[in-house]
């Protein structure tokens, strides 16, 4: 009931200003955002790695409006990858990128996004780690997949995110289940029309299971991005059925969500990667986390009104 209005609110500039200005919202925001800057997120990264978890760092930013902004974000990715290299984290700490943040929506956006992601991938290669391209709204899916296809010519390890709520995704999984591919499968967090996306939770879960079966049965490296216990159980069974050991796939969750389960799975010998979002542009990401769970909204509103 709250999902659609919250996802609409995620696009509202006025509400964004209001929420960002409110100091009271900060403790709630901190639950999902791993740091406001490079040093803070590096500290969180170190703690995670010491605790036996892997990380993927997302420097937040969406709907970049000019090439200079896209260039700045690209430079900050290079900066964090240089830090990953200096700290010797290697592939334990990778990065995730939103193409809208790096210039895809600008005039000549495909060229700008290709150039910027190429720069980030070269820095990742130097640091001995990988890059995964996030999935945004369905209007960008084709452009994102095309960009990954081109990037993989030079950087075969570039990963891509697929969203199980899209009707097309099972087919995309088939196309991407080849050797060397890295696919992060999530349910999907945007507001999409019924013409392109399943609307019913049960249908989304059924699609997620079908997509998992395709990826686990293929030759690539599946990255199972979900907090849903039923999906995780399905993934583990599908991995065993397809003769995959723990090094042949990984489980992934978001920072601040089901933290005990992240620990439990890592302690049980699973590779668990935590997605750490950081930076000042947290509004859109934060609103999508609220939309996923009404209890988060109650917690947030209580923080806003409690003196
Ligand atoms: P579901 O929403 O059914 O949640 C299962 C259980 O997890 C809930 O019952 C609750 O216990 C817990 N939970 C889930 N979300 C919660 C929240 N916000 N707060 C508190 N508890 C919560 N989406 C996208 O469109 N593009 C992308 O690129 C990515 N990238 C991405 C990377 C990674 C590593 C993850 C884990 C997720 C994404 N997502 C994403 C988000 C994804 O599409 C989806 O919205 C969320 O993961 C929630 O879906 P679940 O599969 O967890 O199931």
UniProtKB/TrEMBL annotation:
- Could you tell me which Pfam families the record lists for this protein? Pro_dh
Name the coenzymes or cofactors required. FAD
Does Ligase show up as a keyword for this record? no
Q: Which GO terms describe its molecular function?
A: nucleotide binding; proline dehydrogenase activity
Which enzyme class? oxidoreductase
According to UniProt, the reaction catalysed is:
L-proline + a quinone = (S)-1-pyrroline-5-carboxylate + a quinol + H(+)
Query: Where is substrate annotated to bind?
Result: 98, 288-289
| Keywords, comma-separated and alphabetical | FAD, Flavoprotein, Nucleotide-binding, Oxidoreductase, Proline metabolism
Q: Which InterPro entries match?
A: FAD-linked_oxidoreductase-like (IPR029041), PRODH_bac_arc (IPR008219), Proline_DH_dom (IPR002872), Proline_oxidase (IPR015659)
Entry superkingdom = Bacteria
Task: Report the pathway entry.
Answer: Amino-acid degradation; L-proline degradation into L-glutamate; L-glutamate from L-proline: step 1/2
Q: Which residues bind FAD?
A: 163, 187-189, 201, 226-227
List, for all copies, the residue spans of the domain called Proline dehydrogenase: 48-299
Q: Kindly give the PANTHER family that the UniProt entry links to this protein.
A: PROLINE DEHYDROGENASE 1, MITOCHONDRIAL, PROLINE OXIDASE
Enzyme Commission (EC) number? 1.5.5.2
Q: A GO term (biological process) for this protein?
A: L-proline catabolic process to L-glutamate
The record's cofactor note says: Binds 1 FAD per subunit.
Name recorded for this polypeptide: proline dehydrogenase
Whose protein is this, by species? Antricoccus suffuscus
């Amino acid at each position: 009931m709250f999902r659609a209005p919250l996802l609409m609110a995620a696009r509202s500039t006025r509400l964004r200003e209001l929420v960002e200005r409110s100091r009271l919202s900060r403790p709630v925001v901190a639950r999902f955002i791993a740091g406001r800057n490079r040093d803070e997120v590096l500290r969180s990264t170190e703690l995670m790695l010491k605790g036996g978890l892997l990380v993927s760092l997302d420097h937040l930013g969406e709907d970049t409006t000019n090439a200079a902004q896209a260039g700045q974000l690209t430079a900050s990715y290079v900066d964090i990858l240089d830090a990953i290299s200096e700290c010797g984290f290697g592939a334990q700490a990778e990065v995730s990128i939103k193409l809208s943040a790096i210039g895809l929506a600008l005039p000549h956006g495909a060229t700008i996004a290709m150039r910027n992601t190429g720069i980030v991938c070269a820095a990742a290669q130097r640091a001995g780690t990988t890059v995964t391209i996030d999935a945004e709204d369905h209007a960008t899916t084709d452009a994102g997949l095309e960009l990954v296809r081109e990037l993989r010519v030079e950087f075969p390890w570039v990963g891509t995110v697929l969203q199980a709520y899209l009707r097309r995704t099972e087919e995309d999984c088939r196309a991407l289940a080849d050797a060397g591919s890295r696919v992060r499968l999530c349910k999907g967090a945007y507001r999409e029309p019924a013409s392109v996306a399943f609307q019913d939770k049960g249908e989304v879960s059924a699609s997620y299971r079908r997509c998992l079966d395709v990826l686990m049965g293929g030759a690539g490296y599946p990255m199972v991005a979900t907090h849903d216990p039923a999906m995780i159980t399905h993934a583990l069974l599908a991995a065993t059925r397809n003769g995959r050991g723990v090094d042949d796939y990984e489980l992934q969750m978001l920072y601040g969500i089901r933290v005990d389960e992240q620990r439990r799975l890592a302690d049980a010998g699973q590779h668990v990667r935590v997605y750490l979002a950081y930076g000042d542009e947290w509004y859109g990401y934060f609103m999508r986390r609220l939309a996923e769970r009404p209890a988060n909204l109650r917690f947030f509103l209580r923080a806003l009104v409690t003196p």
